[in-house]
Amino acid sequence: MQLKTHATEYLQKNNIDFVFVLLIGVVTTFTLDKINPIFIFSLMIIQGITLFRPDEKIKFKTTPYFWLLMALYGLNIVGMLYTEDISRGFNTITRQISFVLFPLFYSVYRVQNIGLLLKLFVISVFGFVLTFELHTLYLFFYKSDIFPLDLELFFSYRYTGGELTKLLEMHNAYFGMYIMFAHVIILDYLSRARKNYIIILLLLLIAFQSLFLLQMVAKTAIILNIVLIVCSLAYILIKRKLYKTLLFSIGLLAFAGWFSVQHLNITVSRISDRLTELQKGDNSEQETRPRMWSASIPVVKDNYIIGTGTGDVKRELHAEYRKRGINIRSNVHNQYIDYLMRFGIFGLVLFLAVFAYSLIHAIKTNNYIYFCFTIIIMICCFTENILSRQWGITFYAAFNYLLYYQYQKE
C-alpha cells in the first residue's frame, strides 16, 4: 500500500498520466516499426475517449503554423484529384496521417514534462546503440567464420554499415537522425550542467555514439553530426569558460579522427567516394544520387506547375530510370525533388515555407533544440525521402509541433 502511495505521488509530481506514458512509448520506439504504430494508435484512441467524456472541457487552440502543416498534408488530398495511381496515392495519404494526428493531439493535450520525454528519448537511443553494438560483437566473436579476429575484420564491411543495425532491419540513415537529435538534447543539457563529472560523462556518451555513427557509415549524418558537435561545444564551453573541458573535448575529437583514419577505412573511403560522385554528377558510371536527381528533371519539366499527383511519381521516375540505364528501383532520395515532382512549384514552396517558419520561430524564441532539429531534418531531406517512410514521418511529426508549440513554455 505504501509502495502504491509513493508511486502515485511520483507520477503526480512529474505530471505523468496514462496518455503521457503512451507518448513516451511513441518517442522511444521509432526504431521498432511494428510496435511504434501500436503506441500511436493507442495514444490517439485514449486521448479521443478522454476528450469526449461529458465532464471534459475541450481546449482546442491552433496557431498559423498548425494550419500551415495542415495545408502541407492537404496537398496529398488535392493531388488525388489528378493522380492516375489511386492505390499508391491512397497509401501515401494513410502513411502520412501522423502529420495531422500529432498537431491535433498537441493542440488539446499539454505535455507537462517535456524534459523527461526528451531524456527518455536519449536513453532509448543509447539503449538501441548498445544493443546493436553488443549484437555485432556477439556475431564477431561467436559466429564469425573468418580468422584472425582482429580490428581490421571487425571494421570490415561484414560488421559495419547496414550490417550493424540488421538485428531490427533498421535503415542506418534514419537511425543516424535519431542519434544526431539525441546529441542535440545532450548538448542542451550539457550547457546547463554544473557538476564536472556529469559534463565529462555526457561528452563520453557523445563520443561513443559518434564512433557508432562512423561505424554505421551514415554519411550525411556523420558530416552533420561533426558540424553540430564542434560548433555547439565550442560555443557552450567558451561561453561558460570551461577551458579545461574544451581541451578534453578537443582531445576526444582528435582521438576520434585518428581512430577513424587508422581503423574505419570503409567509412572514410565511402565519404570520399560520395564527394567524388557529387563532383562527377550525371557523368558518374555508378547509380549515384546525382544520376537519380538528374533523371527527375524530365518529370519536373512535364509537370512543373501542379506535379504528377500524389500517387504517380514512382511510375514516372522509374520510366526515366529505365531510359538512362539506372537499374535501381528506389525513390529519388531527395525530399525536395520528390515534393517538386509530386506537387509542382506550389508544393515545393509550401514545403520550404514549413521549414522557414520553424527556423524563424526557433530563432525568435531562442529554442536551440528546435532549431537543430529542423536543421537535421532539412539536411537529411537532401539525401533521403525521410518523410516518405514511417521511420522519418513519425519522428518528425511527434517532435515537430511539440517543440514549436509547447517546448518554450516549459
TrEMBL record:
Keyword Ligase: yes
Topology with respect to the bilayer: Multi-pass membrane protein
InterPro entries associated with the record: O-antigen_ligase-rel_domated, WaaL-like
Cellular localization per UniProt: Membrane
O-antigen ligase-related domain segment(s): 221-352
Primary localisation category: membrane
Alphabetical keyword list: Ligase, Membrane, Transmembrane, Transmembrane helix
Superkingdom in the source lineage: Bacteria
Name of a matching Pfam family: Wzy_C
GO molecular function terms attached to this record: ligase activity
Segments crossing the lipid bilayer: 16-32, 38-53, 65-83, 89-109, 116-141, 173-190, 197-214, 220-238, 245-264, 339-360, 367-385
Name of the protein this chain belongs to: O-antigen ligase family protein
Taxonomic path: Bacteria, Pseudomonadati, Bacteroidota, Flavobacteriia, Flavobacteriales
